[in-house]
Predict the 3D structure of the following.
Amino acid sequence: MVLATKASPAPESPKAFTHGKVLVLGLGLIGGSLAAALRRTQKHQLWGYDLDQASMEQAQQQGVIDHQVTDLAATISLMDVVVLAVPVKAMEKVLVQVAPHLSKNTVLTDVGSVKGNIIAAAYDVFVTPPAGFVPGHPIAGSERSGISAVNIDLFVDHKFIITPLATSDAQAIEVLADLWSGVGSEILMMEVARHDEVLAATSHLPHLLAFSLVDTLASNTDNKDIFRYAAGGFRDFTRIAGSDPTMWHDVFIANRDACLKTLDQFTEGLADLRAAVATGDSQTMMGILTRARSARHHFEKILANSAYTGTMTNTKHFNVHAGGQVRGRIRVPGDKSVSHRSIMLGALAQGTTHISGFLEGEDAMATLQAFRDMGVVIEGPTDGKVVVHGVGLNGLKAPPGPLYVGNSGTTIRLMAGLMAGQKFDVELSGDVSLNKRPMERVAIPLRLMGAVVDTAKGGCPPLKIKGAQQLTGIHYHLPMASAQVKSCVMLAGLYAQGQTGVTEPAPTRDHTERMLQGFGYAVERSLDACSMVGKGQLTATDIDVPSDISSATFFLVAAAICPDSDLVIEHVGMNSTRIGVVNILRLMGADLRLQNEREVGGELVADLHIKYAPLKGIQVPADQVPLAIDEFPALMVAASCATGTTIITGAEELRVKESDRIQAMVDGLSAMGVSIKGTTDGAIIEGMGDDGQFSGAQIVTHHDHRIAMAFTIAGLRAKADIKILDCAHVATSFPNFVELARAVGMTLDEEFQA
C-alpha cells in the first residue's frame, strides 16, 4: 500500500498560484489525455506543444487542446501551469528551454515515472528550483502511445503521486492537487526516493519481465505454436510488452539502481521456486504459491478500499427497518478466539495442523496473514478449511516490515507475547481504532519477564519489540480479568526459562490453556490460575472450530426480545468460560435450551434453541460478568426490553474495547428513549417492559462492530427505522451478519458511501 508523506514545509510565499491557463508540453498518451480531461472540465484554457506538428494539429482537431503553440517562449511566460509530458531522458533538455521564460507565478510540473533524475536535472538547471516547481506522476497508462491513443477517462479512479521538494510552495502543491483531482485522480504524496523504489517494483519490473519473456519465447524456433496456443494469462501479462520501447528504455536507465535492486530480489525468489520445482519440495512451492495468491487477493481488496491492511475508506451504514421476526435454523461463523489461536499454535507446532470451521473474518485473517509474513506456509482458507505447516517454536522468520493487524485487539495482544520470544525485532500496529487501545497492560508483564517492549504515546500501538532477549518465567497476578493479557503472558512463557504462571481475579475464557493442551503442551490449571514450564514443544493436531457464542449472542437476544420467535443456532461453543450470556439470559427469563450437547476437539458444543418469553430486569451476578464481557452490548438491548431494572457492575473492561462500549450503548439507547445511566464499571437500565418500543434514531458506532450489531437487533422492537453509522467493521468478526439477519426475518439495507 502507498503511504502518504508530507514534504518539508517551504517558506511562506507571496505568490498567487492559479491554474486557469495550462500548457501541456508533449501530446502523447499522458499529455494528450490530461489536456482532453482538463478541457472537459471547462475550468481551463488548454495550450499544447509537441515537436511533431501533425500531433498538435490532430490534438486541436480532436478537441484535445484549445490552442497550438507557435512561439513556445512567449506562451510559457503567460501560463499558470506548465506540464512537462515528455520522455524522462528528454526532461533536462526541455527544462533548459523552459526555465528562462517561466513566470514567478507559474506552477511547473511533470508526469515522469522516475523522479530522482528529473529533480536532479531541475537542480542542475535552476540551482534552486522555483517555488512553483512540484514534481508529480499519474499512475495510469496503456501499451498504446501517441495522440491517437488519447483517453479522456485515463486518470479517473487512478492515483496521482505528488513528490514535492522542500522548495515547493504550499499553494503550488494545492494547485497541482486540485488540477489532478479535477480529472478524477486520487492524490497522494510521497518522498522522491520512496516513489522510485515503489515504481521500480510495481511498474518498471513488470515491464522488464514482460519484454524479456516475449523476447525469449519469440527467439524459439517453434514460437509460432507458442504464440498460437497461448492462453489468457500469457496474453494479459505480456500485453505491456507492446508498450513504447524507447520510453521504457529511458525509464529503465533513469531508474537503474532501483530497477536492479528489485530485479535482484525477483531473481532470488525465482531461483528459490526453480529449486523447489527441481527437487519436488512441495512445502516450499505451496508457501510461494499461497503467499502469492493471498497477496494478489489482498491487492484486490486494497483497490476496493476494503483490505484489513489499511484504514477503511469506504463507509457502510445500516438502515434497519422497524419490526420483523426471528425464526429458523442457522449456524453462525466459527469462534474468533479459537480461530486466532488455531493459527498461532499451528504455526509454532511441529507438523501439519488441519483446521475446519475457521472464521474468515478480517480479524482472524489478520492473524493468518501475520504468520504468512513470518514465513509460515498456510493453505486456505477455503470454506473454513485451513492447513498450517508448522515451523516449530523457533522457526519463524523476520517479517519484511511491520506486522499490521487491522482492528484485531486479540491478534496484537497475543502476538506481543509470542514476538517477545523471537530472535528478530518486530513492530505490531493496527488501524486508527486499534492504535488508540491500551497496550501497557501486556507490555508490563512482558517487561517483567525480560522483554524489551516500547509503546507509542499513551501506551498505545504500535508496539516495538526487540528480539533476542532472554525471557524468564514469572507468576503474574492480573490486575484485571482479561483473557488477552493472560494469554499474552502464557504464550511468552513458551519461550521463557522456568515456570510461567498467571492468577486472575475472576475466571476468563480459557481457550489458550485448552489449546496448548490440545497441541500436547503440559499446562497446570485451577479455577483462577494456570502455569506452564517453558522451552517445550507443540505438536500439530486437527481442530474443528465451534460456532462463536459471541456471534450467536446477537441472534439469541434478537429471539429473546421479539414476540413469536423460534430459533435454533447450531454447533455453538459452550466453553464454561464463555457461557455467561446463556446464564444471564436464563436469569432474565429467556426460554433458552441446550440440545445435542457434545465435545468436539476438546471444546463443548451444543445447539441453542430459544423462543420468545418476557424478560425481567436483574442484578447481573459478578461472577458472570467476565464470562460475557463481549456480549454486553447485546445484553444491554435485552435489558432495555425487560420489565424492571437491570444493574451491571464490574464491567470496566468494556471501556477499553474497540470503543468505550458502555458510553456508546448509553448514548445510543438514550437516543432511542431508554432510561439508562452509565457508571464507571457498568450501567443501570430501566427496562421498557413487554410492550415497550424503541424510538427511531441515528446511532454512532465509533467503528465498533459489536455496537453496530447490537443496535441492528434493536430494530425488532422499534417503532421507527434506525440508521446505524459506520458499520464496515462488522466484517471483522461476523462477515455474513447481514445475510443471516435477513434470513431469520430482520429487514435492513446497506448504504455505501465513498
